[in-house]
Amino acid sequence: MERRNVLRxxxxxxxxxxxxxxxxxxxxxxxxxxxxxxxxxxYTKERPGRWAKKVSSHLPVIERxxxxxxVRTRHPQDAFKHYIVKxxxxxxxxxxxxxxxxxxxxxxxxxxxxxxxxxxxVYVTSMCNIHDVWLNALKL
Length: 140
Hints:
Layout: H1 3-17, H2 55-58, E1 61-65, E2 68-72, E3 84-90, E4 96-101, E5 110-114, E6 121-128, E7 132-139
């Protein structure tokens, strides 16, 4: 290929990349089910992927109680056979806030988290040892 063609196509490609739209994840602008990896890397009510029959027992339920949120996953803890491993809270920018790990030999997976310094949307994950990670959101 001639040197001029290489330069021409190279410059055209570089200029064209300036006009390709990009996704910007602004704080709180996404619903949990509309995020890019929902239904594949993690699951949501709207995008349960291969686990469509597991939504009610795996999706974390979030309730606000003043400056805290209480999270519950309606899932039995069946010793080490099938259980919820942990709840994780992420802020509006998907930064780690807190997590609570569960003993699969004890009680139901319920956790409480301080959100007094958060705004926008809070994202919560519930991790099952068999049915992967589930994400739900609460707009503050």
